[in-house]
Design goal:
293 residues; mainly alpha
């Protein structure tokens, strides 16, 4: 797979995640965030299980002590990011959630540098701050009115940044991206159900209205987008991937405006343009760099 193809997978993932914020919000009209998360990722794990088994039949998964430790950290970071974001969506808007989640753009290169001593490519230096500035404009140019939901989503952004950094480390060592996706989906499902069953209970009448939202997030956001992310990060560095995936803020704002009636101001539209330009710059830079003069 070429770098450009990998970046395209990440862009598709960003689009799916952006629109999935709407489904995540609607799904909680009738059920709690923990059961929604548990059921959603249980289905995601089931969907990709045959592909993970096929991958492992080709070559068994071999992991040393460091790999196992990092895999545990990956699952913990993923669970924390997903659950904090889902709970935060109870009291924040889809647009704000997309905007604040994308703060991992700034966190990811810092974590990669801190933990793995991975220096980001030069294009990240202007692209990441520009993308964050675009997200700030998309949020109306103010942090003044942040509520508890907003703060939870900001916390989730840190864990998603850690998750993105760990993916690049693990998948390059194991070469088993689909198996890694299956493991993290299973862990998140177990975490959601372990908290949700005693706190929220299993109510089929509450779950039934949320089935379309559950299926959308399970199949597209989970089974496809998160798997695409792991596959693509075999070829795209974590910091670059974070900038491209940050486009979910743009897609969340558009989906929120169309489906839920969230407003998108002129300032927000300018922010969208800046985010999209940053994504294209990061995505095309490696190809342009190799183009002979």
């Amino acid at each position: 797979m070429s770098r450009l193809q990998a970046d395209l997978l990440l862009l598709i993932g960003a689009f799916i995640w952006g629109t999935a914020f709407v489904a995540q919000k609607i799904g909680m009209d009738s059920m709690g965030p923990f059961m929604f998360t548990g059921i959603r990722f249980a289905l995601s794990a089931i969907i990709i299980a045959p592909f993970a088994l096929k991958e492992l039949r080709g070559a068994p998964l071999k992991m040393d002590r460091l790999d196992r430790y990092m895999l545990i950290c990956l699952c913990l970071a993923f669970c924390a990011g997903v659950i904090l974001q889902q709970v935060g969506l109870i009291t924040t808007t889809v647009t704000n959630a997309g905007f604040l989640t994308s703060l991992y753009i700034i966190f990811t290169p810092l974590i990669s540098l801190w933990i793995f001593k991975t220096k980001p490519s030069l294009i990240i230096v202007p692209a990441a701050p520009a993308c964050v500035f675009g997200i700030w404009l998309l949020g109306g140019g103010s942090f003044a009115a942040l509520n508890m939901g907003d703060n939870l989503v900001i916390a989730s952004a840190f864990f998603f940044a850690l998750h993105t950094s760990l993916i690049s480390f693990i998948v390059l060592r194991t070469k088993r991206p689909i198996a890694m996706a299956f493991i993290q989906f299973s862990a998140c499902s177990l975490a959601g159900l372990a908290i949700g069953l005693p706190l929220e209970g299993f109510d089929i009448q509450a779950i039934t209205p949320a089935i379309p939202a559950i299926l959308y997030t399970a199949i597209l956001s989970g089974g496809i987008a998160y798997t695409f992310q792991i596959i693509a990060q075999q070829h795209t560095p974590a910091a670059d991937a974070a900038v491209i995936l940050g486009g979910e803020a743009l897609f969340a704002a558009i989906a929120g405006a169309i489906i839920l009636g969230d407003s998108l101001s002129t300032t927000g539209l300018i922010g969208c343009a800046i985010i999209f330009t940053s994504m294209l710059t990061v995505g095309l830079y490696p190809s342009l760099k190799k183009t002979p003069e």
